[in-house]
Amino acid sequence: MDAEIHIDEELEKSTLLQDLFGDVFPRMQAFKDKLAKEGEERGIIGPRDVDIIWERHILNSAAIVPFIESSTDGERFKTVADIGSGGGFPGIVVAACLPDHEITLIEPMERRVEWLDECVDELELGNVKVVRARAEEYSKELKHDKGMHPFAVVTCRAVAPMTKLSGWTLPLLKHGGQLIALKGRSAPAEVRKATKEIQKNGGRNPQVLEAPIADGFEPTHAVIVDKK
After folding, report:
1. The pTM is what?
2. CA-CA distances (angstroms) from residue 127 to 77, 82, 155, 164?
3. Distance, CA of 29 to CA of 180 (rounded, Å)
4. Residue of 2 and 139 predicted with greater confidence
5. Which is nearest to 69 in space by CA: 201, 211, 228?
6. What is the pLDDT of residue 202?
7. Pairwise CA distance, residues 117 & 150, whole Å
8. Alpha-carbon distance 192 to 190, whole Å?
9. How far is CA 42 from CA 6, 52, 54, in A?
10. What 8-state DSSP symbol labels residue 102?
């Protein structure tokens, strides 16, 4: 724990964050400050996370950004749904880093929806829509409402195992879209266990790729599943 705190303190003193986020850094700093000030009290992050917000939440979320950029390259409509957005991981970070993408944050809990709305307003994220719903409810709306369109990418982080996640996320995708889920070390085992569910919900070619965070940090993992 002490080592983790030390790492986050060193991050604040270094230029790594500015170098990594560039013009987006002021928004990320504001997001981090809001999390540090209000996150624990409002049940957004745990008490052990307060001193490691950069490392555990913001940098970890940012690791998904290159995968989304690659997936939407050449797409006319760069639409992304982040399910179970919670405190804004990875959705708020993705929205700040990719202002040319349309981001929909799907979150069922009212207090977290209020938090997300505040973050969108305070960070002046004009490319974000917050929806209070469960992913499975939203996919039903998507199926029956002709004014709604499936997404190019669906993201999530620490929401559920792939056996459940497949049914919640793949129906939200357009043909040729991708599920890009941030996962830990159990990712390969989760994918193997979810093979039937992935196929059942129109997914194919599941991959587990390393997702670099920053120099000196252990990478996380991205599970990528194509929608037929």
Report:
1. 0.94
2. 12, 13, 16, 28
3. 25
4. 139
5. 211
6. 97
7. 22
8. 6
9. 25, 17, 18
10. E
